[in-house]
Amino acid sequence: MRLRPATAALALLLASAGIAAADLSVEQVRAALKAATAGAPADFSGKDLSDLDLSGLDFRHARLAGTSLFGSKLVRSDFRGAVLQGANLNGAWLMGTDFSGADLTRASLLSVVVLGGEVKAMPVFKGARLAGVRMIADLPGADLSGADFSGARVGVDIKNQGMGQMRTDLSGANLSGAVLDGADFNRTLMNYCNLRGSKLRGTNFFRARLAGADLSGADVSGADFTEADVGGAIFRGATGESTLRGMERAENADKIVR
């Protein structure tokens, strides 16, 4: 079988180093990215890149399906259009990292590190595919516009006591035009979140904080707001309100803006 140029270059690097393909050095990752072309992107699928400092590297359109990036520093790295299906990014450093248009289907982003708390330090997930993703992260003000969170688990895992003490913070985040169909956002902080025109069909917002959130034009069919705080939330032009669940038990439901 003839290897593609990028694949051949990576194989040569591994062979010359005499190490297993699942344990690359930063230098080898850099070399593989440099050897990649538009027709033959770098392929790190299934590799172990844990705890490496890969900050500032260009992973655009690279293949990282099932790759472990556990604890890795990916500060200001570019993953636009990359394939990260099932990747492990738990504990990864994501300040300024760009995942626009990336495929993170079923990836895991638990306890990712975003220091500073400022919007400019937030990773970008604009138009990213995050279907089935598992996420516990502090991403206030982050750009998640147009992202697909179908079936994602962003809320607290009450079955896991270790994670049960944590919750995702998306306060002020941009989720306009995003798809959250069937996703679990229980107990998630989403105060003043931009959800304009988003799809929230069957989304679980149990005990979520949505004070001041803008759901204008959103499809909320079958969404569950049981014990959620919706004080000042904007529902102008929202569709599917007649099928909402738990609104009679929501906090500050009388202060919704319609």
What is this structure's SSE topology?
Blueprint: H1 5-17, H2 26-35, E1 108-110, E2 134-136, H3 161-164
Overview of this protein structure:
The chain has 258 residues and is largely without helices or strands. It is 10% helix and 2% strand. Strands 1-2 form a two-stranded parallel ribbon. Helix 1 packs antiparallel against helix 2 (26-35). The protein starts with a helix and ends in a 94-residue tail after the last helix.
Helix content: 10-25%
Main beta sheet:
2 strands, parallel
| Largest beta sheet: strand ordering | 1-2
Radius of gyration based on Cα positions: 20 Å
Shape field? elongated
Oligomer: single chain
Order of helices and strands: HHEEH
Arithmetic mean of pLDDT: 90
Strand content: under 5%
Secondary structure: number of strands: 2
Span between termini:
63 Å
SSE class: little secondary structure
Number of helical stretches of at least 4 residues = 3
Indicate the low-confidence ranges by residue numbers: 1-22
